Predict the structure.
Amino acid sequence: MPENDRKQQENLNEKRSENFSGNFNEQGDFMIEKIKERPVNKGKLFRRTLTTAAMAVMFGSIACVTFLILEPVISNRIYPEEEPAPVVFPEDQEEMAPEDMLSEKLPQESEEDNQEGNVSLEQDQIKEILSGLVLNKNHYQQIYSALSVYVAELNHSMVTVTGVSSNIDWFNNVEESKKQSSGVIIANNGRELLVLVDYAPLQAAESLTMTSSFLDAISSKGSPHQIPVVLKSHDPATDLAILAVNLTDVPLEIREEGGLEIASLGSSNSKNIVGSPVVALGSPMGSSGSVGYGMITATGGQNYQADTNYRLLQTDIYGSQKAGGVLFNLQGQVIGVITDERVSSDMKNMVTAYGISELKKSIEKMSNGERIAYLGISGIDVSDEAYEELGVPYGAFVREVEMNSPSMNAGIQQGDVLTSFGERSIRNYNDYITALMQAQGGDAVELTVMRAAQGEYREMKVTVTPDWR
C-alpha cells in the first residue's frame, strides 16, 4: 500500500474511534438522551372530540327513532292487539202506549166477538181499573221515592267531565281554571268506554278527567276518583263529542262492582211522546248531579242546520239557561240530549233537548272514530200540498246553501230540489241526510237536482265533492 493511502486510512480510523468513544461516559455506559415529545395540537383534539360526540348523538338519535317506529310494528306482529268492536245503535222501535200495556194484562176476548165490542170492552175495563185507584199523599210520597231509586240506578251511566286549562296572570303566576260538562256512557267497544258529552265548555281544556257519584261512592279513597279521558271525535254542528276512557284506567274495584253501566238510546220519534214523563239528569239546574222531573210538552220545534235537522223536545221542567245532561224516559232509555237551544224566547228556563233519533247516526260515526261528510245544504221535506198545488217534485227542498260550501261551489241554489244522491233516490230531507252520512269526504258524487225555470221544474245533474265537517 502506498504511503499516502496508509496515512489516510489511519486518520479515518482515529476519527471513528473518537466518535465511538464519545458515546460513552466515564463508566463506559451509554449516555441517556431525553427525546422531546411532539407538542399536542389542542384545537385539532377538540375538533376530533366534538366530531366523535356529534356522531354518537346522531347514531343514538337514529337508533331511538328507528326503535320508536319499529317497536309498535314488531309488538303488533308478536302480540297483535284486537281492534275495537264497531259501535252500532239499533233502529228506532215504536214504544208501547200505556193503554196497550193494560190491554195485555186483560183477559183475551173470543174470536166470535166483533171488533167494536172488543174496543168498548177494553175501554170499560180500563175505566174500571182506574176508578178503583184513590191517590193520597202517601201515594205521592211513594211515587217520588220510586223516582229517587230510579234516578240512583240511572246515575250509574252519568258522569261529570272536568276540563283544566292554565293561564299566566300579570305577575307570571300560573292560574288553573276548571269547567265541567255532564256526560252519559253510551258504549263499550271492548277497549274503551265511550262518553257522549256537550263539548262546548271543554274546548279550551288542556286535560280532561271524569268522575261520577257512583265512582266516589265505592272508591277506597276519600277524595273523588278521577279517571283520565281523551277526545275521540267532535261534531261542530251540535258541539257534541265522544270522549274515550281506556278500560285499563278504570279501577279494579269499580269493574268488580259492575258500575259505569251503558245507557240505552231510545227513540224520540214515538207518536205518543208528547205528554210522556221524563227525567232530566246531569246538570239540568245548572249544577252537576242535579235532577228534574217532568214531561214532554211539545215536539214541534226544529233546529235547521247544514246537512241535518234536529228535532227539539220541549219539557215543563224549569231549569237553568245553562242546563246540560240528558233526558231519560221511564224505560231507562236516553231520548234527548239537553241543549241551550230554545223553542221560543219566552221559555228561556224550560229544559229543551235534541231528539236522540236525529242524533243517532252522527253519534254512531263519532263513536267509531269516523268523520262526517259535509255539503252545506239546509233543507226541508216537500209537503203534499206543495206537490199537488205548486207542482214541486218530491225530494229534499233546499232552504239555504252555506257560503263557500261544496254545494255552493258545485252550483246548487236555494229553491232547488234534490231527487237523487248517487244511486240513491231522495224522497225527503231525511233520505238526503242518510245518504250523506254514508258518503265519504273527498269522493265525488253525482246529484240530481230539479230547478224551477219558466214555470216548471227541469232536471239537471251536478257533480259535487263532499268535504268533512
About this structure: Residues 42-78 form the longest helix (37 residues).
